[in-house]
Amino acid sequence: MVCTRFIRPRVVNSVEFRASPAQVEAGGLETDLQLVAINHSANPKSFTVTWRGDFRGGMQPLELAPFSTQKVGLPIRARRAGQGEVYATVDQGDQRIAVIRFDVRLTGSE
């Protein structure tokens, strides 16, 4: 008698993104939000990072080398002091990979 059992392994995401830190407080009207990108794969990966929200955002390409960790600075600017949210989206082609939320407070004083 032969017994066959199919095992379905847990799938681990090959790329990980997170805010570092998720709550940002800065003096002045400009700061960089830090996005940490980790590639657990043996293949290089290409993404487009777009950030927007209550402060002026932007867009930039992101290239991750195999088995690498990279901190990405996302510059934001405000016209006046205030607080709000910024959402960073990470896309690979037409597919949305991640959405990261930042709580931001800019005090306007250096």
How are the secondary structure elements laid out?
Layout: E1 15-19, E2 23-26, E3 30-39, E4 45-53, E5 58-64, E6 69-77, E7 82-92, E8 95-106
Summary tags:
110 residues; mainly beta; five-stranded mixed sheet; elongated
Query: What summary fits the major beta sheet?
Result: 5 strands, mixed
Number of strands: 8
Q: Which strand-content bin applies to the residues?
A: over 45%
Order of helices and strands: EEEEEEEE
Instruction: State the helicity in percent bands.
Output: under 10%
The number of helical runs is: 0
Measure the end-to-end span: 77 Å
Which structural class fits the helix and strand makeup? mainly beta
Mean pLDDT: 89
Instruction: State the assembly state of the protein chains.
Output: single chain
CA-based gyration radius: 18 Å
Please tell me about this protein's structure.
- With 110 residues, the chain is mainly β.
- The chain is 0% helix and 61% strand.
- It has a five-stranded mixed β-sheet with strand order 2-8-7-4-5, with no helix packed on it. A three-stranded antiparallel β-sheet has the order 1-3-6, with no helix packed on it.
- A hairpin with a 4-residue loop joins strand 4 (45-53) and strand 5 (58-64).
- 19% of the residues are buried.
- The model has no long low-confidence stretch (mean pLDDT 89).
